[in-house]
Amino acid sequence: MNPAIQGLLTIVIGVSGCVGYFYFSNQLLDKVLFPARGEHAGRNINRANMVRPWLFLFPAMFALGLYLAYPVFETLRLSVTDRDANDAFVGFANYQQMFGEAKFWEAMRNNMLWLIVVPAAATAFGLLVAQLTDRIAWGNVAKSIIFMPMAISFVGASVIFKLIYDTRPVDQEQIGLLNAVWLQFEGGIGSFLFLQVLPALILLSFAAIVAYVGYLYVRPFVDANESPGGPLMSAFRIVVGVAAAYFVYLALANTLAVLTIELPYGEPQTWLTIPFWNSFFLMVVLIWIQTGFAMVILSAALRGIPEETVEAAIIDGATPIQIFFRIKVPQIVSTIVVVWTTITLTVLKVFDIVFAMTNGQWETQVLANYMFDKLFRANDWGVGSAAAIIIMLLVSPILIWNVYNARKEMS
Amino acid sequence: MANLKMTDIEKVYGGNVRVLEDINLDIKTGELIVFVGPSGCGKSTLLRMVAGLETITSGTMEIDGLVVNDVPPAQRGIAMVFQSYALYPHMTVRDNMSFALKLAKKTRSEIDEAVANAARILQLEPFLDRLPKALSGGQRQRVAIGRAIVRDPKVYLFDEPLSNLDAALRVATRIEIAQLKESMPDSTMIYVTHDQVEAMTLADRIVVLTVGQGIGQVGSPLELYERPENEFVAQFIGSPQMNLLPGEITATGERTTVKLEGGGVAVSAVPTNASDAGLKVNVGVRPEDLVETTSEPLFEGNVSITEALGEVTLLHFDRVGNQDAVLAKLPGIHAGLRGKSVKLSADPSKVQVFHGGKSLYYRN
């Protein structure tokens, strides 16, 4: 049969099947099971109306049960059995084996890195773009362009970025954008300023900002004009202070390293094989895509802030920066949380980008790709399922929190 | 604690939409000035120009002798109470009130004292640690006023502060604002409203703004009521609005006699010159100033509808030609007058005469 006709036939059968299901199941309910006549007409109508919602819910619940709930339990079962030994129960042996693998911990560490960097960067960029394009004539054009990557699949985006990171031998023309830029630096004073002094300055300002935030949190302990709050708040303040001190130390130490490093000028780099940094090159792809999502949601939230509260703050003497951080952001904080957690969910499941760009080589492995590796390449059903369960355990609390916040947002 | 002077203030939007022009006002220290006017007259815009939320297209605005055209809002020494309260929803009442002081880097003890003081005046002490969403409309409005008080501004600006409250609360809050003003006799206040009752009860002086023709009149509430400068103010102040009856001056001198087109004869206390005889004028008389008479009437007509309100009865008369229907407000209950012919006259001192829209009382 011609595939077009086959497709058409599927649509016709599917749609008429759906319509038929709802029509005939309702007919059955109203005419046969609880007919609205006879001595119990009133009671029958009430009963039919109590059953009816379940008629409508049944197809969705059935499909979700078959394709979502059942696989969870089946995966759980697979993760504690050995397929090769006739489905024998092996307890946590699969998990033990997995925890013993360096590749698993590499995937775990990379996933955590993704988890910290991508949602933070995407939300921050999204918020920044939303605020900056608000009330600008060409703001909508800018927003449309930034939103565009959302329409590209992760694999498509990976292909685009693979070209950006592409490497050719020294004697050939570089087609990769990053290498083309890189080769412009020849080790002169310009290169030193741009690749060593500038990053050092960025690190230093990062250290300054972190130090200031830490100081703001610790200040109540030394300033009589402020109270540190309850014991919980005090503890939190100390934690923030210590964390800030640690980050300041890291930034300062790295500043020195950046200033003294000897860069391999003139050699095209194979960016995706540089351990540790290559993970960040992959993250850029996801940030590039998710910024548009964050921007659209946060832009709508910013528009929803009552204009008068901003005007009242202007009269109260707040600067634009203060208005943004102390009036606007607190009012949309629940939306920011929803955006953040939604991106976090995407990040935890990230697979396509790593699969298409490095396939987990050069220390870029992530959990989802590790699972795919075990399950479908090594055919190790036990360990693969165990990895899937670990991902589910990581995603579930964030998912629940996300749904909770989204519901709170809507009410 | 400050006077405010506006000279030739003008506001033009987008180069051609002229909202305000020729605004000249001198507001003295300690005055409560009310801006009233129909919607679209620019009264809120003018207030926002005082606040610094709108730019001034041309003219100068002075607070305490200092031109503030380019001074940012926070440094003008003003505080504003918004129609929608504009409380910061994520801050407690205390934080809402202390926000401005924190930004101004006041010490903790100064802030606490100012907030405690404002909370005492406005009876907000029990609510200081609540969020705005846990307060009623009236309480929110008091917090908004408290936020203004803590800053100890030279000029208070109120932008229709009562229009989001229900009728009973509106009366109560109006009285609270009047008491607040009394307790701070030195602070200058500007109050924008479209509600005449608020204007008449609160104002030391009222500024009536017209749509596109600048200020209609500035004066005390009773001046505006008894001696309106022009037909616009005459009809804007007072409810139901003043009757305007066209006619022609027939006798001049200490008093003026006007023969009305509807057949009546009006006598006004406004003095006129002999040369005014034959002038086409409009006679203005308020419905509540019309009384029943048996002698020569100012107006005679058939009652088409009566509205008995108990203390007064409104009489709507049949239209004559294409004039507006005449209204009279008689004390007591007169439900039986419907369909009957009634003769009415008025005290000459309460009869206004307008020529070309301007009152003859203000001719000099």
Provide structural commentary:
The complex is a heterodimer of chains A (about 400) and B (about 375). With about 400 residues, chain A is mostly helical. Chain A has three domains: about 5-65, no CATH class; about 100-175 and about 275-410, MetI-like fold; about 185-265. Chain A contains 16 helices and two strands. Chain A has helices at about 5-35, 40-80, 95-100, 100-135, 140-145, 155-165, 175-180, 190-220, 230-260, 275-305, 305-315, 320-330, 335-350, 350-355, 365-375, 380-410, and strands spanning about 80, 90. Chain A has a two-stranded antiparallel ribbon with strand order 1-2. In chain A, helix 1 (about 5-35) crosses helix 2 (about 40-80). The longest helix of chain A has about 40 residues, at about 40-80. Chain A is globular. The mean pLDDT of chain A is about 85. With about 375 residues, chain B is α+β, with helices and mostly antiparallel strands. Chain B has two domains: about 5-235, Rossmann fold (3-Layer(aba) Sandwich); about 240-360, Nucleic acid-binding proteins (OB fold (Dihydrolipoamide Acetyltransferase, E2P), Beta Barrel), CATH 2.40.50.140. Helix content of chain B is about 25%, strand content about 30%. In chain B, the strands form four sheets. In chain B, strands 6-7-8-3-9-10 form a six-stranded mixed sheet, with helices on both faces. A six-stranded antiparallel sheet of chain B has the order 13-12-11-14-20-21. Chain B has a five-stranded antiparallel sheet with strand order 15-19-16-17-18, with no helix packed on it. In chain B, a hairpin with a 4-residue loop joins strand 11 (about 245-250) and strand 12. In chain B, helix 2 packs across helix 3. The two termini of chain B are about 35 Å apart. The model of chain B has no long low-confidence stretch (mean pLDDT about 85).
CATH top level class name of the largest domain in chain A:
Mainly Alpha
CATH topology of the largest domain in chain B: Rossmann fold
Structural class label of chain B: alpha+beta
CATH T-level topology of the largest domain in chain A: MetI-like fold
Number of domains of chain B: 2
Helix segment tally of chain A: 16
CATH superfamily name of the largest domain in chain B?
P-loop containing nucleotide triphosphate hydrolases
Cα(first) to Cα(last) distance of chain A is 51 Å
